[in-house]
Specification:
The strands form four sheets. Strands 1-2-3-4-12-9-5 form a seven-stranded mixed β-sheet, with helices on one face. It has a single domain, classed as Cytochrome P450 (Cytochrome p450, Orthogonal Bundle), CATH 1.10.630. By secondary structure, the chain is of the alpha+beta class. Helix 4 packs across helix 11. Strand 10 and strand 11 form a beta hairpin. The radius of gyration is 21 Å and the shape is globular.
Length: 416
């Protein structure tokens, strides 16, 4: 692994202040040298480009994800996740969606929403999808196997999760390109350095996405089916049902989260496996070995590298880190997964490691509700891919997208 630090990297050891441009190409292509340098000095630092304290130690991130003194709701500030406040009239539709998102809520509302949705994502329910995921993976490979080349991001990693979640929700699979467009535009709101243009695009996407789902919710209310949208409309907890706004927002969240991270992780995993030199036959020899390989892929090159929280009270985290209500912190999942205090040889890809654990799905009450589904999709898709195309290799060097938070490849051009 290269240990070249990004050109914009400047770290003040005494003050524990970091200047590092998240748009620095050397950094978003390979953030791990910067993480390794920081791990050698500290477990927390003030990232000047973001304006808040960040935590990279595995134990610290794990504990802070569970610390109820912090949360996702903006209780003590009118600023958004990027510290921006002021007139948000141009974001009314986006804000309406976010207002009812369980990702942005805390108990008791979060508890009620999660309880209702969780039934569809428990492992025994998800396991029923194994044959369908395997069928999808094989059908996709059938389309280009004789062509002997493909961009696996567009032609393999993307179609599987978006098809699965669309079928689960009960919306037409042929609308997948439109769903992806809406999703990408909404997710752009969480990127560092967004623009007025991207905000307006996200707002219009939220309005269009909501209208689309309200239409399908209306159909399911009149004629319930065996799908997640019908389940959400019928579900009750303590006698209370989801409102229409809650149903629409939850469906948008599941569609966005149900494919975005899995697409990136699939691409990252294929890249990791092709570079590791361990031999795919042994990595996917059986179900247990496949599961271990996927867990190490999740640790080694995660799709989400930062998740933020707000302080709800005055908090002294020691070492000079004192926070007041409304202050934001960054929890760096990708860095925590490479913490040398938590992992032996953290820079090495070792599916058989004894210290196998990762924070790629988060922890605490906001632990990814779709983790069982994502794990299943990765295990099935990767095993089918390398069974069908054992001679897979890069046809072009892969490059990561200029989106630091969401760490994934632009393309993955391969041949065999």
């Amino acid at each position: 692994m290269s240990m070249i630090l990004p050109p914009s990297f400047r770290y003040d050891t005494e003050r524990r202040h970091l200047h590092l441009d998240p748009f620095d190409g050397t950094f978003f292509e390979d953030p791990y040298p910067a993480y390794a340098h920081l791990h050698a000095s500290t477990s927390a630092f003030f990232w000047e480009n973001y304006g808040f304290w960040c935590f990279i130690g595995y134990d610290a991130v794990n504990q802070l994800l569970r610390d109820r003194r912090f949360g996702r709701e903006k209780r003590h500030t009118d600023a958004d996740s990027q510290g921006r406040s002021g007139n948000r009239a141009h974001l009314n539709d986006f804000d309406r969606v976010e207002k009812f998102s369980m990702l942005e809520l805390e108990p008791p509302v979060h508890t009620r929403l999660r309880t209702l949705v969780n039934r569809a994502f428990v492992s025994r329910q998800v396991e029923r999808l194994r044959p369908r995921i395997e069928e999808l993976a094989n059908d996709l490979i059938d389309r280009y196997e004789t062509r002997r080349d493909a961009d696996l991001i567009a032609e393999f990693a993307t179609p599987i999760p978006v098809t699965v979640i669309a079928e689960m929700l009960g919306v037409p699979v042929e609308t997948a390109p439109q769903l992806l467009d809406w999703s990408h535009r909404i997710v752009a709101m969480y990127m560092h350095g967004r623009t007025r243009q991207s905000e307006e695009s996200a707002n219009s996407a939220a309005a269009e996405f909501s209208s689309f789902l309200r239409d399908y919710a209306g159909r399911r209310r009149a004629e319930p089916a065996e799908d997640l949208l019908s389940l959400l409309l019928a579900a009750e907890a303590d006698g209370a049902k989801l409102t229409e706004d809650e149903v629409v927002t939850t469906a948008i969240l599941l569609l966005n989260a149900g494919h975005e991270a899995t697409v990136h992780q699939t691409g990252n995993a294929v890249k990791t496996i092709l570079e590791c030199g361990l031999g795919t036959t042994s990595l996917f020899a059986d179900t247990e070995r496949t599961a271990k390989t996927v867990e190490e892929c999740l640790r080694y090159d995660a799709p989400l590298h930062m998740f933020t929280r707000y302080a709800y009270e005055n908090v002294d985290l020691g070492d000079g880190v004192r926070l007041k209500p409304g202050d934001q912190i960054g929890l760096m999942l990708g860095a925590a997964n490479r913490d040398p205090r938590a992992f032996a040889l953290p820079q090495a890809f070792q599916p058989d490691r004894k210290d196998q654990k990762n924070l790629s799905f988060g922890a605490g009450i906001h632990f990814c509700i779709g983790a069982p589904l994502a794990r299943l999709e990765l295990q099935v898709a990767l095993r089918v891919l390398f069974d069908r195309l054992p001679d897979l290799r890069f046809s072009q060097p892969p490059h990561y997208r200029n989106t630091y938070h969401f760490h994934g490849l632009e393309r993955l051009d391969v041949t065999w």
